[in-house]
Amino acid sequence: MNSDTSLLNVRQMARADRLSVEAGIPVIELMDRAGKAVALAVEERFSVCQIVVLCGPGNNGGDGFAAARYLAGHGWPVRVALLGERDRLTGAAQAHAQLWTGLVDAMSPSVLSGAALVIDALFGAGLSRPVEGAAAETLAACAGLALPVVAVDVPSGILGDTGGDLGATAAVLSVTFFRKKPGHLLMPGRLRCGEVIVADIGTPVSVLEQIVPDTFENDPMLWLAELPRPQLDGHKYTRGHALISGGYPLTGAARLAARGAARAGSGLTTIAVPEVALPIYAAALTSIMVHPLKIPPDFQNLLEDQRFTALLIGPGAGIGGETRTRVLELLASGRPVVLDADALTSFAEDRESLFRAVTGVCVLTPHDGEFRRLFDADADKLTRARRAAHRSGAVIILKGPDTVIAAPDGRAIINSNAPATLATGGSGDVLSGIVLGLLAQGMEPFPAAAAAVWLHGEAATGFGHGLIAEDLPDLLPAVFRRLPASSESSGGGVSPHRKSPALLPE
């Protein structure tokens, strides 16, 4: 089984289809296989019932005609409705419409009479305008009748590149082909698509070598080979020493981050705190070391210790000039730096000085509000994250239910395992700590960011309802135990860490 997690945008998927045809697979055959895959998915998940197949005027509609033919051939009562005129279809879609021997109704809500299941084969992922007219009315009627909908590719109205919604009716199941699209994972598309099945319709995996994907769904196979593992001949310093700038009077955020770093494998973790806060931190932490700072130069002096291998500031740091100064000191140290929360907001009025200071390994972990204070937010989430990474020179973790991890060279990973329970105070602080712990052990920033986001989501998923941020660090060991010892072959897929000539010319 091919386990490659590349995501293809609409343009790339169209090219994959063209390359498949050039490889000797006619469009009519690809369409037949797509329809058969939709029919099979329906048969595996539903009992025989009255089905209505809503077909559009393009290739998505051709897939629908093929699915209708297979289902009817297997004894399902099928009714087909077409948006537009049958004789105006062209190419492979026309050929499959001609193979359908049943009646073809005009598109209207009335075709849903007696239906128990609907197949939405109206429009594919490349739709660029709102769903309207008879198609919109019929889809709205599906929702009003609470009919389960199976979408071909994506629910009609969901944009394949961005997940944007132009009037979609939510599906319980979406059947797409060869590879998912970003819109299957990005909100609100992720909510509208339901379960997503990727069907193999014979597209050669070799086409990825020409397309060179730059977007991926987060999965351990992307970073497992680079994940730090304890070695028998190692010791605490070979596993890295993480340093966190702790705040006062808000102390909980830095403590959460410190425990995240330690559970992620950092051999040593230290929080540097104002002397007045020492009793609070020391009373709450045991294996985490606490270093008191009496006067401002103490922190700069602490940075002279080269045994610190990665640095974090932001959780509970406070917003203002002192935090800005400390951020710049960390960035000037030449070591990997994670910036979160207050460290980002402190530069809302001086973002250029922050970007100029990012000259080495740096990971920024903003939620949407923090992101908007530093970057242009006038685009879809994937584009925004990519632009921000390029502009800042840092790896960006743009958090949310559809967290995007973007590298400065244009590569991006979309995370899909985050449960709703992560929407709790302090969970982001733990995430920044996990990133810190992996960087402290020498992991490269892009895979470290992706690994941290996935581990964070997996830990939350394993706990379930009632999760609070304090739970997350102690859930990580079980997640690590479930990971295989090494990554498996992707079966001919494309590595997200291979530098694309199109992105990084020599």
Describe this structure in words.
- The protein has 506 residues and is an alpha/beta fold.
- It has two domains: 10-213, Rossmann fold, CATH 3.40.50.10260; 236-482, 3-Layer(aba) Sandwich (UDP-N-acetylmuramoyl-L-alanine:D-glutamate ligase).
- Helices cover 38% and strands 14% of the residues.
- The chain contains 18 helices and 17 strands.
- The chain has helices spanning 10-22, 27-45, 59-73, 91-99, 133-144, 189-193, 207-211, 252-263, 278-284, 297-303, 321-332, 342-345, 351-357, 368-374, 381-392, 427-440, 445-463, 471-482; strands spanning 51-55, 78-82, 104-106, 117-121, 149-152, 173-177, 195-199, 215-217, 241-245, 268-274, 289-293, 310-313, 337-339, 362-364, 395-398, 404-406, 412-414.
- It has a ten-stranded mixed sheet with strand order 8-17-16-15-14-13-12-9-10-11, sandwiched between helices. A seven-stranded parallel sheet has the order 3-2-1-4-5-6-7, with helices on one face.
- Strand 16 (404-406) and strand 17 (412-414) form a beta hairpin.
- The radius of gyration is 26 Å and the shape is elongated.
- Mean pLDDT is 94; it is low at 488-495 and 497-506.
List the helices and strands and how they pair.
Blueprint: H1 10-22, H2 27-45, E1 51-55, H3 59-73, E2 78-82, H4 91-99, E3 104-106, E4 117-121, H5 133-144, E5 149-152, E6 173-177, H6 189-193, E7 195-199, H7 207-211, E8 215-217, E9 241-245, H8 252-263, E10 268-274, H9 278-284, E11 289-293, H10 297-303, E12 310-313, H11 321-332, E13 337-339, H12 342-345, H13 351-357, E14 362-364, H14 368-374, H15 381-392, E15 395-398, E16 404-406, E17 412-414, H16 427-440, H17 445-463, H18 471-482
Parallel strand pairs: 1-2, 1-4, 2-3, 4-5, 5-6, 6-7, 8-17, 9-10, 9-12, 10-11, 12-13, 13-14, 14-15
Antiparallel strand pairs: 15-16, 16-17
